[in-house]
# Entry
Amino acid sequence: MFKPLAIYIGMRYTRAKRRNHFISFISLISMLSIAVGVTAMITILSVMNGFEKELRLRMLGMSPHVFVMSIFDDTLSDWRLLTDQVKQHPEVTGVAPFIQGQAMITRNQNVYGTLLQGVIPELEPEVSVVQEKMLGGSLDELTSGSFNILIGEELQRSLNVQIGDQVTLVVPQASVTPVGLVPRMKRMTVRGVFRVGMHEFDSSLVLMHMDDAAKLLRLPEDTVQGLNIKIQDMFAAPQFASKLREALPAGYRAFDWSYRHSNFFKAIKMEKRVMFVILTLIIMVAAFNIVSTLVMLVTDKQADIAILRTLGATPSTVMMIFVVQGVIIGLLGTGLGVLGGVGLASNIETLVPAIEGLFNVKFLSSDVYYISDVPSDLRWADVYWIGINSLLISLVATLYPAFRASRTHPAEALRYE
# Structure
């Protein structure tokens, strides 16, 4: 009795009463459709966020958050002084020099292109997780002058080599011999195998001691090509790189991980946006159900609307009655969908293995996919946006039927009553 008239009648119309069981059934279907759509959106976006986070962690496990290079040439001669300067920033957790170059690795008749990277074994764990990803061997095997190398698991499988076997590295630099120019080649010993879980690294990366890489690439002594930097918060890397550029001496540039892998993460972001639009269509289908429900209800309630108008109800009051009913359907559907989506996204890492065990299947085989588990990263910002969009779509869907109800003429509606 204390409710406003429009809210009271709108809530009464939402429940089944004698003649309108079918209309109430359509209302229930609309509500469940919205709930399913919202649940699907929250779950799928959480899974996509989980895959993005997992890929970022694996990629940045081997790639630096920030790296510093010279803009004049490919070498840093004063890298030790520069390292001390970078370490003065409180955000920095590790700094390690590197030397990089292109090379080919061969064994028997197998030839593959590789990315050669020279590192200092004592400093490399500060900026990468390669030591934690070793399947055999260790970074300690990379000693100056030994020309030992570490390779990825896929590259090992392609070359068909074992730890202790020798391979040949060919660098794109020519050596002058009595028979003319020939490519520079060096016999290397495989002393370790790592598996990062990223095809880019497992199939082409070759690690060796920085002194050996400098000799192979004919770089000046005690010279590196850049510094890899790891900071506390990887997402703050663009801001830190910008700040570092202002603090570095002239001739040095700092780049963050988003610069090196920008196309990859832009593609993931685009996929998430497209998926959001596609899944929104599910909610829009449910909104059409709301439209049909209210249109049928307006037709069914013509006499009631006419009586309300003759008793003094204004067109806006009549319009609000049907808006309330549509909003109630949207609120209940969105609420159920949010509860279902949050619950499913929060427990999907447990539910998927349970389903796999129950039906004896494997959705993501480790022999095919680098990420064999289904990760989930529930972000409340996504939940809020999905909930707000669902409510807005539900509200918009009520406007046309409610407007038609408000335009009902009492005399025309009661002519045949």
In short: The chain has two domains: 5-58+264-413, 65-257. The two ends are 29 Å apart (CA to CA). DSSP finds 13 helices and ten strands in the chain.
